[in-house]
Structures are given as C-alpha cells and as structure tokens.
Design goal:
Blueprint (H helix, E strand, L loop, with lengths): L17 H21 L11 H20 L1 H5 L8 H22 L2 H16 L12 H20 L3 H22 L4 H20 L33 E10 L5 E2 L2 E2 H9 L9 H7 L1 H13 L18 E6 L3 H14 L4 E9 L1 E3 L13 E4 L4 H4 L6 H7 L1 E2 L12 E7 L16 E5 L17 H7 L1 H8 L7 H24 L5 H6 L3 H19 L11 E3 L10 H14 L58
Parallel strand pairs: 1-4, 1-5, 5-9, 9-10
Antiparallel strand pairs: 2-3, 6-7, 7-8, 10-11
Helix pairs in contact: 1-2, 2-4, 4-5, 4-6, 5-6, 6-7, 7-8, 9-15, 15-16, 15-19, 17-19, 17-20
C-alpha cells in the first residue's frame, strides 16, 4: 500500500466511461471524508489508532492518484466539473494526515511530507479563486489551511516561508472580514496576534549580522553519539515516551503550543532525513506502522545498518497544554504502561510553582508543594476549602510521581518551585534523575517574560541562551559561526568528562546511554557552568540543580571554564563574566570579531505562561476553532 505521492507516476490503463469515472471518484471522495472525520474519535493514547490511519492513507492514496489519472474528465463541466479548490481540499487533508501522523509517531519525516503537500497547494494556487465564490465555508477552509501550514513551517523552522504566509494570511483575513463581516473576526485576529507574538519572541533570541540578517543554528539532534550495546553486552537504555507539559500562566503560545513546549519538543527529535522521503512514499503505511512498533519494543541491540529508519526513531511524545491534574496523571499512567524493557519515560513540566504555607499544627514537612496544573473551574466553584489547600489539590507533588518510579523516569522541572523535587523519594531503586531550573533569576537580568524560560532555552540551544544573557543583539556571521562551533566543542568536552568519571551516579550513567537524554544532561552541566561564571548569577536560587546532584567539579573543571572563557572572549562580552585568575589563560578573541553593545549585568531569565485548555497530544493544531484540527 502506498502513501499518497504528490507527483506519483501514473500508469495509463484503458480509460473507462465518463460515468464510471465520476461514480468511482464520488465513492472514493465520500469514503475518504468519512474516514477523515473518524480520526477525531480515535483514542489519543495507546496504539489502536494505527490500523485506522493505515486505511485512511490507503483511501487517500487511491483518491489522489485517481483524480490525477482522470483530471480531464473530472474537470469537464459535462461530467463532474471538478474545481481547483476541491483538488486543494484533498491535498490539504493529506497534509493534515501527515501532520497528525507526525504527532502520533514523532517522526519528523512525516512533518516534512506535510510541508510538501501544503507548499504545493500554495505554489499551484488551488485556493486562488475561493473569494470569488462568495462562500464563507470555502474561505474559512483557506484560512485554516494557512494556519495549519504556518504550524508545520514553525516546527520545521522555515521562517522565510512563514513571513510570506503571514503576509498572505493577513490580507485574506482582512478581505474575509470586509466581504462577509463574520462572527469569528475576533478569533482570526487572535490567531494573527498569537503567530506574530510567537515569531517576535523567537526573533528576540536570534542575533543578526551587520546587514540585519537573522543568524540561525540547528536545534534538533543530528548525530547519534552512543553505541547500541554496552561493553558487557547489555542493551542500552532508550528514551521511549516523553510527556511535555506547558502550564505557565500567560506564556506566549500559538494554538496550544507554548514557547517552552516548542523548544523542548525539537530537542527530542532528530532532523528530518530528506534522503528517506522517497523511501517513505513508496514503502507505505504498513512499514510505517512496523516502524512505530519498533519504537516501542526495540531492545537496543546491534543493527546491520546505522542508517536504518529504526536507528533514527524519536521518542513518542504527548503534548499537554494546561492539563488538569487528573488529565496529567492519566497521560503519565498511559506512558508508564507503554514503556518496554530497557526504556525510560521523560516528564517535562514548565509551570508556575505551588508552595505549601507552613502552619504550626502541621507536623509533616515532607510536602512542600509542587507545580501547578490547570483548574477545572466548574468544580472549583463548589470548593469551600482554603485557597492554599485548593491550590495544593490542583498541584502535582513529587510524591504523586512515586508510583511511576518503578521504571526509569527522567524529570525536567522548569518552575519557580522546582526545588520541591530536589529530594525526590527514591523507593524502588530504579534509575531516576531530575533536572531542576533556578527558582528565581537576578533582578539585573533583562525581562524574559517575552522569550520563555531561560533554563529551557539552555537545554534547547545553549548558544542562543549564552548570547541572550550576554545582551548581544548583533554579531558578525564569522564570529557567530565560530561561537556555534566552539559551543559544540564545549559540549563534547563535558561529554568526555562525564564518561571518564568513575564516581558518577549509576542513574546518570544509565541515562547517558540515550542520545537525547545524554544531550540534555550535557547541556544542563553547560548551563550550570556558564551561569556560575556570569556576574549576575551568584545566589543558589539563581542556579539550576539536579537530583542526584552532579559533582560540582564538572562546572568548575579547568577544561570547561577555560573553553567558556575562550567563548566569552570570542563574542567580546567579557564585561558580563568573571573567571578565576587561577584558571588557564583563555585564547584571545579574533581581531575581526565583533558583537553588539553590552552593559554589565544585563541578561535574561524568568519564565512566562499560557491560558487554560484541555490537554492532549493533538493540541498543536492551529485554528481559532477546535474543529480546525
């Protein structure tokens, strides 16, 4: 069975009669619409959705090829009168299929396939004449197409395309508003505002060269750095399930994807393998489903080919935007159930802190609060308890996660109360690690409420975080490339130090066996080392922490400090940092390097937040109304 190919090679069979062609087309079109509508009823968890997706792909494959083969007959007004927007609608639904398959599998190749179909719709102008039909339903379909296309481009970091789409979408919304005076004008204004604000936040973190061009850096994992089997032959640990929670109030978002979720999501994916696109198109959904099963059951053994699709499997992810405590625990339990042997679960939470106020009559000091989850306001109105107690009821406490530590668990807590997880109860002697953000940022750091969390930014792109806390807005292309390369060399140095340390906690060693977790641990150490050298980050609450605690010798290792000093000199931001005079002398910055102005103590860090909604893995869809998914 083939997955739809945009320009599939078409055989030339004996042409049936026009009536037969129209009947077959109408049958396939109706069947495809029924199957597509049924996607909404599929369970967001488990694997029962795979056969249904397979059938849907099969029907759309037949429909797409059929309309290509018989385009002349179908476009004839005497036979059917197929309009270009109808072809565009079929292509748009195929793009949506690929996008939702990406959400289900976390395979970035399908995200790229979605882009290919969406981009073809725009290039071939399938929706060009919808305004002339004076049909609001068709115009709304075009608007939703633009919104979905922008989401895909956002996840692929295609900023140049996004800028063009935004211009076209803005004009379309304006025409739509003037022509029809619809009731959903405010909703589409919100969509435009969210996209603009989201892009502006990303732009603030990207320095520009002297001509004003944005300087970029790759964010997804590109290479595997670990072997599949340990020296003793034991299969290595594999990150299989990841739950990403965005629960900060008022953080910038687009649809139901916050800045922090957007960044950590990319840190748990490999770059799309463009060389595999043709293979995926011809191999079909049967192989796709097999690949997903491999993701769940791969024992990490040796493989004959390092280039196989199995080797580049990404962890399966649930994206939860402001879930309630019951929703969050349901997804955690589901992911826990799905974890196979030699696999781990990652739980990333970006949320406001929820602290417990100490009272004299309370003798149990083990519950110090946790992180906030969304509140079901219908129930909250019936609660008569004290406000402190009410907030604790809707809070995820460390002890809530104890039952799930029966299997390897990797936690990232980015919160103002992250320290509540510092002494996590370790009951079952399984591998457990927590990376914890600073609880506060220095007052001298410039406001970060418009750029997301600084801690998450370090885990996502250390070089962007470094430039941000160094208040560097403009830098030469040559210097930027050197900084990016030097930051990579620092990560390698940290990796070597971790591998060479014989006293490293066994949980850390075990998690280092997975490429994604390894990268997160390395960047945590890098974040801690850079912040220790920065003039503004001097109190413990300004610095990240971990459980189990990593030896302080990593952050202060002469090899690391020396390389950070070289990086600081290279970027010409020495006024922000202080280095121990005993450390080895750093290399001088190149004579032709240059950067923006900098004043001591200016850098950023506080986290920000989003607004309430339900949480599920398909919360990334991009329309003002939920039915646009």
């Amino acid at each position: 069975m083939d997955i739809p190919h945009l320009d599939a090679d078409l055989a030339q069979p004996v042409q049936p009669s026009s009536n037969k062609i129209v009947e077959e087309f109408q049958y396939l079109l109706e069947k495809s619409q029924q199957l597509f509508a049924g996607l909404r009823d599929l369970p967001p968890t488990g694997r029962n959705w795979q056969p249904y997706f397979q059938r849907t792909f099969e029907v759309y494959t037949k429909l797409w090829k059929f309309q290509q083969q018989h385009r002349a007959v179908l476009e004839s007004s005497e036979s059917y009168g197929l309009k270009r927007w109808e072809i565009g609608e079929i292509a748009s639904k195929i793009g949506q299929l690929y996008y939702h398959y990406y959400l289900r599998t976390s395979e970035t190749n399908y995200l790229l396939e979605s882009f290919i179909f969406y981009d073809a719709i725009r290039e071939r102008q399938y929706f060009r004449d919808v305004m002339e039909t004076k049909n609001t339903g068709l115009v709304i379909k075009k608007l939703r197409y633009f919104a979905r296309f922008i989401v895909v481009c956002l996840l692929l970091n295609k900023n140049a395309v996004i800028n063009k789409l935004m211009d076209e979408l803005t004009l379309l919304v304006d025409d739509y508003t003037k022509s029809f005076k619809p009731n959903d004008t405010a909703e589409w204004s919100v969509v435009l505002s969210e996209i603009t604000t989201f892009l502006e936040a990303e732009k603030k973190l990207s320095p520009v060269d002297f001509e004003g061009n944005v300087l970029s850096v790759t964010n997804r994992l590109q290479l595997e750095r670990t072997l599949r089997v340990d020296k003793d032959g034991q299969p290595k640990l594999k990150l299989q399930e990841a739950i990403l929670v965005g629960n900060y109030q008022n953080q910038i978002k687009f649809s139901e994807l916050t800045l922090d979720m957007y960044r950590i999501l990319q840190s748990l994916e490999r770059e799309p393998a463009t060389s595999l696109i043709g293979v995926q198109r011809t191999m079909g959904a049967d192989v796709v489903v097999k690949s997903e099963e491999t993701n769940a059951n791969d024992d990490g053994g040796d493989r004959t080919s390092d280039k196989s699709a199995t080797r580049r499997t990404n962890p399966h992810k649930y994206l939860l935007y402001r879930p309630t405590i019951s929703q969050l625990l349901l997804y955690i339990a589901t992911a826990f159930k799905d974890i196979s042997d030699n696999s781990a679960m990652l739980l990333y939470i970006s949320a406001n802190g929820c602290k417990r106020s100490a009272k004299p009559e309370q003798t149990d000091s083990s519950y110090t609060g946790g992180v906030a989850t969304a509140v079901n306001y219908a129930r909250k109105g019936n609660e008569k308890s004290e406000s402190d107690q009410t907030s604790l009821v809707h809070c995820l406490h460390p002890h809530d996660l104890v039952p799930f530590t029966r299997k390897p668990l990797f936690l990232i807590i980015d919160s103002t109360n992250s320290t509540a997880f510092k002494n996590f109860p370790k009951v079952f002697n399984q591998n457990l690690m927590c990376l914890l953000s600073p609880t506060e940022y220095p007052t001298t750091i410039k406001d970060t409420t418009l750029i997301g969390s600084l801690f998450t930014l370090f885990l996502h792109s250390p070089v962007k975080a470094f430039v941000f806390i160094s208040d560097t807005n403009e830098i030469s292309t040559n210097t930027w490339q050197k900084c990016v390369a030097h930051m990579t060399s620092i990560e390698r140095e940290i990796s070597d130090l971790l591998d060479a340390n014989q006293n490293l906690d066994k949980s850390v060693k075990r998690f280092m066996q997975d490429d994604f977790l390894r990268q997160l641990i390395i960047r945590f150490v890098l974040c801690d080392a850079i912040l220790h050298c920065h003039n503004a980050f001097k109190e413990s609450k300004h610095l990240p922490a971990s459980y189990p605690a990593l030896p302080p010798s990593f952050s202060s290792a002469p090899e690391i400090v020396n390389k950070i000093q070289e990086l600081v000199n290279m970027a010409e931001v020495t006024s922000f940092y202080t280095f121990n005079s005993a450390a080895p002398a750093a290399a001088q910055a190149p004579a032709n390097s240059s950067s923006g102005t900098a004043t001591p103590g200016a850098a950023p860090g506080t986290s920000t937040a989003p607004a309430p909604s339900s949480g599920n893995e398909e919360a990334v869809s991009a329309t003002p109304a939920e039915e646009a998914a």
